[in-house]
TrEMBL record:
It holds the Pfam family malic. Belongs to the malic enzymes family. Residues 239-457 form the Malic enzyme NAD-binding domain. This is Malate dehydrogenase (Oxaloacetate-decarboxylating). GO terms for molecular function: oxidoreductase activity. Residues 94-227 form the Malic enzyme N-terminal domain. It comes from Nocardioides salarius. InterPro entries: Aminoacid_DH-like_N_sf, Malate_Decarboxylase, Malic_N_dom, Malic_N_dom_sf, Malic_NAD-bd, Malic_NAD-bd_bact_type, Malic_OxRdtase, NAD(P)-bd_dom_sf.
Length: 458
């Protein structure tokens, strides 16, 4: 069965050698379309009496589908697939970020001020007045994006080298959405003590630390210890960025269905870093009835088999000590939030929830339930995917969060700041715009970073 192309993540360009008949090009486009691909561009690179050289760019659903599209193109009579380029890989050649100078270096005079001897005066001034480091260096606008490569996207423990493209992307997003200079720091260790010490040693050059893709429960201790030892804010985006955007989306979803935060029962699937942070922020926002499930079922404080991290989470939730699997505890719940694994929620279970149910299936790239199927039963559905309405994306939070922290010269991040950030994101969506398919602004909404930054600064 042919798959359908839904995103440009598997966008390829095929260079074809074809017979000198433009009708062949149309046949290729038709074959690709019938195989579920989306042709986005056709360019004739060369034309002669003997042959055409044609570049066909198309989107596929996944890597296997991309290969299928190459095969169907090659099967068209008179067509040879000369080579295929994956546009994602082409974009990453040489990396995605670079260092640029903010000052001219055109002559000896420029050099004498930007570097020696002029820079020596600035260094001595900072030695005498350390509080000026943020003002006279890049520290005031710089963030270290730190990972150990142990929990990269949905790919797992793939190590620091394989994590580098993700950290580069994060740095590019910081620059694009908040004009912050962020630096990928990929550490070749997964030892908690070594990670903490490494970050402490590089901290003087940065105004903030963004922890990224570090596995739970190690990430909890690393963040706690760094927050205690450093005088700059430490923010684990997988936890707190996710929590901020989820709370913003939940606030607006409940506005749609006419329910209040303090009146709903929420079931969270996933007890890792993101799930824990979401629960913490929801409780701070006033949600009173939360049940957390992992693969073994509901977490309850009367279960003495739980790990310390899960026992602590259970102690703050599930006050009625519900037990059972996800389907069991989902009965009567108003909200489902999934930060777990693909397919754990069956769409047919949603009618067992309360009327006007809200479903957030946030596992990426494959959600807990197909959003289209969930929409048949739930009043509001959100996911982490860009090809469905209501994408829950951390880009809505972290650029503005750090912009506010840097501008305020903050030394830490508080729950109150994060609550204000969530409220700011929620209210970018005005009442006249709010509907079941639009509960959260797009990541390109120009008002979001500034609103979040202002909220963080208070």
């Amino acid at each position: 069965m042919s798959r359908s192309a839904t995103t440009s993540s598997y966008s390829i360009t095929m260079r074809l050698h074809t017979a000198p008949d433009h009708g062949v090009v149309g046949a290729v486009a038709t074959a690709i379309s019938q195989a579920g691909g989306i042709v986005t561009a056709i360019d004739v690179a060369e034309s002669s009496h003997e042959r055409l050289v044609v570049d066909v760019t198309c989107s596929a659903g996944d890597a296997d589908h991309a290969q299928e599209l190459q095969d169907v193109a090659a099967a068209v009579p008179g067509v040879e697939v000369y080579r295929t380029s994956d546009r994602v890989f082409l974009l990453h050649i040489g990396g995605k970020i670079e260092v640029g100078s903010k000052v001219p270096l055109k002559n000896r005079d420029d050099l004498s001020m930007a570097y020696t001897p002029g820079v020596g005066r600035v260094s001595m001034a900072l030695y005498e007045n350390p509080e000026d480091v943020r003002r006279l260096t890049i520290k005031g606008n710089s963030v270290a994006v730190v990972t150990d490569g142990s929990a990269v996207l949905g790919l797992g423990n793939i190590g620091p080298g394989a994590a580098l493209p993700v950290m580069e992307g994060k740095a590019a997003l910081f620059k694009r959405f908040a004009d912050i200079d962020a630096w990928p720091i990929c550490l070749d260790t997964q030892d908690t003590d070594e990670i903490v010490r490494a970050v402490e040693l590089i901290a003087p050059g940065f105004g903030g630390i963004n922890l990224e893709d570090i596995a739970a429960p190690r990430c909890f201790e690393i963040e706690r210890r760094l927050r205690e030892s450093l005088d700059i804010p430490v923010f684990h985006d997988d936890q707190h960025g996710t929590a901020i955007v989820v709370l913003a989306a939940l606030t607006n979803a409940l506005r749609v269905v006419g329910k209040q935060l303090d009146q709903v029962r929420v079931v969270v699937a996933g007890a890792g870093a993101a799930g824990t942070a979401i629960v913490t922020l929801m409780l701070a926002a006033g949600v009173g009835d939360v049940v957390v499930c992992d693969k073994d079922g509901a977490l309850s404080s009367d279960d003495d088999t739980l790990s310390p991290a899960m026992a602590e989470l259970a102690s703050r939730t599930n006050h009625e000590r519900r037990r059972g699997d996800l389907h069991t505890v989902l009965h009567g719940a108003d909200v489902f939030i999934g930060v777990s694994a693909p397919g754990v929620l069956q769409a047919e279970w949603i009618p067992d929830m309360a009327d006007d149910a809200v479903v957030f299936a946030l596992a990426n790239p494959d959600p807990e339930v197909d959003p289209a199927e969930a929409s048949k039963y739930a009043a509001v559905v959100a996911s982490g995917r860009s090809d469905y309405p209501n994408q829950i994306n951390n880009v809505l939070a972290f650029p503005g969060v750090f912009r506010g922290l840097l501008d305020a010269r903050a030394s830490n991040v508080t729950i109150e700041m994060m609550l204000r950030a969530a409220e700011a994101i929620a209210h970018v969506v005005h009442d006249e715009e709010l509907n079941p398919s639009f509960i959260i602004p797009t990541v390109f909404h120009p008002d979001v970073p500034g609103a979040v930054a202002s909220a963080i600064k208070g």
